Amino acid sequence: MALAVEFTKRQREIIAIVKREQPISGAKIAAHLNLTRPTLRNDLSILTMTGMLDAKPKVGYFYAGQQVANLSFEALYEAPIATIMLAPVLIKPTTTVQDAVTNLFMNDVGSLYVADEQQQLLGVISRKDLLRSTINGGDLRQNYSSLIMTRMPNVVTTTPNVRILDAGYLLKEHQVDSLPVLAEGTQKVVGKLTKTRLMAYFVEQGLKFEQERL
Amino acid sequence: MALAVEFTKRQREIIAIVKREQPISGAKIAAHLNLTRPTLRNDLSILTMTGMLDAKPKVGYFYAGQQVANLSFEALYEAPIATIMLAPVLIKPTTTVQDAVTNLFMNDVGSLYVADEQQQLLGVISRKDLLRSTINGGDLRQNYSSLIMTRMPNVVTTTPNVRILDAGYLLKEHQVDSLPVLAEGTQKVVGKLTKTRLMAYFVEQGLKFEQERL
User: Fold this and answer.
1) Residue A8 burial by Cβ neighbours in a 10 Å radius (0-12, 13-18, 19+)
2) Alpha-carbon distance A117 to nearest alpha carbon in chain B (angstroms)
3) What domains, with CATH codes, occur in chain B?
4) Which residue of B has its CA nearest to A32?
5) Are A199 and B195 an interchain contact pair (Cβ–Cβ within 8 Å)?
6) Residues of chain B with C-beta less than 8 angstroms from the C-beta of A97
7) What is the mean pLDDT of chain B?
8) Which pLDDT tens digit goes with each residue over B100-120?
9) What is the ipTM of this complex?
10) Rounded distance, CA B164 to CA A19, Å?
11) pLDDT tens digits, residue range A166-181?
């Protein structure tokens, strides 16, 4: 079905409501959206004319668009994280807390990885670690990053071949903002996977799927 | 297919590699994982015996598990965010920055919503706002939250009926950590949707799907 129509946010909400509760009256759809029936008239006309909804007198609205819309589990969850990981922001163990905060804002990231000259991971500093450190006082120009970082081997890490689903499980279970990605069998940082990146990935895949379907 | 087997992380990685590159030799699988061929022998036996993989002499391994594994787009992306939103942590505009930081740590959240007595949203304070404020100095016991918050109407908000996909789009496009959920047509805060919650939701759905399939 090739549609040239871009549905509005409200129209997409109506479709979702009808899918869940069909058959459903126009009045009930309006109630769900805290809107009046006349306000919805135009949207319901558009959705009926484009074939997304079907209206039966005295019964209500039905969903009439493509009935089955399936995503591939393999494509969405089983790709290796190497395909979506980001470049890490590395700092030295001797970087001051003050410079770490500047670095965090400059790069607009949530966490910094502390590494040695060979890019081997020593530890991780999160926004929360920096906030704790700044509120506790002390001279931020004197304190080293290595003093406030979460230190290896206490950092949860992963490797490039791990499935997106398994890396997501680690982020969720350990309640961390990001996972340093280390080359298999080494301590060398080759990437990072953040909650933000993973969330954006799932949303992008959903949008792409929806667009291809229309 | 009802399997009593729990595959290890490495075995799941092998399955994913075979799915992508079949037919593939044992040596190539080992190379992907930076492991030696003998190390993998046991895993490959288990995967072949359980019927997940099929081995053809001189050709390589094939994936022989359930070939089609589809997720429902509607179930994953089109449910209203009311089904997954969290309870918001509300503070007053007169809460000091110091108390706001304490509140953030106590509740272990990434952002606080500033609301009036009627729970109407006035603004939002993120971990980043607090970090900026604490590093800039000044008396944290004197400064009010209302001075450092992102103020309405500059806050990106949403409503309970919005689809998970559309709320995810807002989080991604506006690069915010959370969306206050306001009752339709009002300023009243009824929930929040965070990047963390959304990421965890997608991961949970993937794990659930995989478990039900096995």
Assistant:
1) exposed
2) 24
3) 9-68 (1.10.10.10), 75-202 (3.10.580.10)
4) B161
5) yes
6) none
7) 89
8) 999 999 998 989 999 999 999
9) 0.72
10) 15
11) 999 999 999 999 999 9
